[in-house]
Specification:
Two copies of one chain form a homodimer. Chain A is an alpha+beta fold and about 140 residues long. Chain A is about 45% helix and about 15% strand. Strand 2 of chain A pairs antiparallel with strand 4 of chain B, so a sheet runs across the interface. Chain A binds a DNA duplex (17 and 17 nucleotides) through helix 1.
DNA sequence: CATCCTATGTTTAGCAT
DNA sequence: GATGCTAAACATAGGAT
């Protein structure tokens, strides 16, 4: 073989492979995936926060129970506000449970305005549909 | 120029444009961006959860204070566990504040094992570095 | 183990509807 | 103000280090 005239595209890697969204079997791969995607989500969270002036909190528990979290302005502030709103709306809160894999979308209806609540419900339904579809 | 013999690929759109990660000026664009990226993060959260058997909670407040959240198995369970751990670890908890935009990475060191705490600190530093770099 | 590499799968900015 | 479209930006699986 003459390396100088080699015509092969010479692909160094197989590139990103398509995967099914189900539990990664190989323990090591699962760990690596968790690590990479955790960073990915945190990055997305900071971007959303910066781009749209939104407050955000992300809390993760690895399968071994290790905690990881990110928040802007910080986790506690976001949680406090979330808890405050969910409490105050005792019979005004709305929780939708997705049956597929136990995933849950929660949205508190804290406004008194009925129309706002309606719009929020719609939004929630759309999001639920989206998330379920994507799985 | 002869339009009929035009050899251009005829691009219908400009495709995804590169943007700076800073507050989107146009109000409408900002809203659309929030909506799209919110869905993106929820999707990423469900994927991470499914792929790695991790528990996750994401809470978002739009700039107008509207709440959106996603959790697996559900937001409350994840928050409860998070709060339980952060409480118990009063002088064992560790919070790093990123000065740049007020973003905060929090990680509770609940294990008694010192080495685990050390490893965790490293992880936390790496994450912080990553997030700050990406902005 | 975290990180680097790179081909490819996935997300999304800017418009149009 | 949510959705569909398309091209380009971006994230990441698999493998190597």
């Amino acid at each position: 073989m003459d390396a100088t005239t080699d015509q092969r595209p010479l692909k160094r890697t197989r590139g990103r492979q398509k995967i099914e969204i189900k539990k990664v079997e190989k323990e090591n791969s699962r760990y690596v995936t968790f690590s990479k995607r955790k960073n990915g989500i945190f990055k997305k969270a900071t971007e959303l926060s910066t781009l749209c002036g939104a407050d955000v909190a992300v809390i993760l528990f690895s399968e071994h129970g290790k905690v990881f979290s990110y928040g802007n302005p910080n986790v506690e502030k976001v949680l406090d506000q979330y808890l405050a709103e969910t409490e105050e709306g005792d019979d005004n809160s709305c929780v939708l449970e997705s049956g597929s894999n136990g995933g849950t979308l929660t949205q508190t209806l804290q406004e008194q305005d009925y129309e706002k609540s309606l719009r929020r419900l719609e939004e929630m339904k759309r999001t639920l549909k989206m998330v379920k579809k994507e799985q």
